[in-house]
Amino acid sequence: MKAVSSSVRTAKTPAGCIEYTLERKKVKNINLRVRRDGTVYVSAPSRVPVREIESFIAAKCSYIKQAQEHFRSRTETAAKERRFAQGAAVMHLGRPMELCMVQSAAESVTAEGQRIVIALRDSSDLTRAERLYAKWLDGRCREVFTNLMREIYPQFAAMGVPFPQLKIRAMKARWGSCHYTKGMIVLNRYLIEAPLHCIAHVVAHEFCHFIYPNHSRDFYSLLDRVCPHWRSDKAELERLVVL
Question: Which InterPro entries does the record match to this protein (predicted)?
Fold first, then answer.
């Protein structure tokens, strides 16, 4: 579906002013969604007047505020869980792991059972330990994401898609993006916290954008074909990993 127009507006509601992004699209009804970052997105047919849209938002204001508070609380909880400390719990490929700093003449980071062991000369030097862990995690992201891209790619090679470049970034509002004109996929560093099948659905999603650089019906038809369980994978990912 091609957007006719997009604008950022503010609606007055019984719960106070609510800023929202309005997209005019070829849809039958007014649709409202609160995103994980707390922003409000509304799509509506071009024929529906703004006053009717804002009446709809006002009627949904309690739900909007509750959803925004829910996402804010989840984000704060995730930030606390990601604090770096001896014995802290971190998620890695869908499994809870314990950070363990140990003293050693040789520096290394290894995953051992339910622990991620960080060996360094001074086990109390959390700044150095965190740097070692971050470097190791970046390597794990590149290894895991690249392997998944190689597994999924043959389906798209048959459609004439060149194997894309991979970039990894820490992002707060999306799991990935496709720069189809540059032949590049960007994946969120936090995906490494999720099970492999959840990461795979994001990779498949971004590959589909090389064929359909939008979220049209054809795009979702292709995604259904290459990743039939993407809806449940997406729901699980959003339940397990908070951006």
Answer: UTP_pyrophosphatase-like, YgjP-like_metallopeptidase
Q: What Cα–Cα distance (Å) separates residue 210 from each residue in 82, 134, 158, 181?
A: 33, 31, 12, 9
Predicted TM-score (pTM) of the model is 0.71
Residue found under tokens 């995690």: 137
Domain membership of residue 100 as a residue range = 81-137
User: Residue 196's domain is classified under what CATH number?
Assistant: 3.30.2010.10
Q: Which two tokens stand for residue 224?
A: 């259904």
What's the rounded mean pLDDT across residues 1-15? 77
Tokens encoding 240: 């397990």
Which one, of 7, 10, 6, 25, lies nearest residue 215 by Cα?
25
185 contacts 207 by C-beta, under 8 angstroms: yes
- Angle, alpha carbons 143-147-152 (nearest 5°): 150
Query: Angle between the 50-59 and 61-81 helix axes, to the nearest 10 degrees?
Result: 60
Residues 121-140: tens digit of each pLDDT: 999 999 999 999 999 999 99
Collapse the DSSP code of 96 into the 3-class scheme (helix H, G, I; strand E, B; otherwise coil) and give the result: strand
Length of the chain: 243
Residues 181, 224 within the same domain: yes
Structure tokens at 214: 């939008």
My answer on whether 87 and 36 are in the same domain is no
Buried b (16+ CB within 10 A) or exposed e, 113-136: eeebbbbbeebeebebbeebbeeb
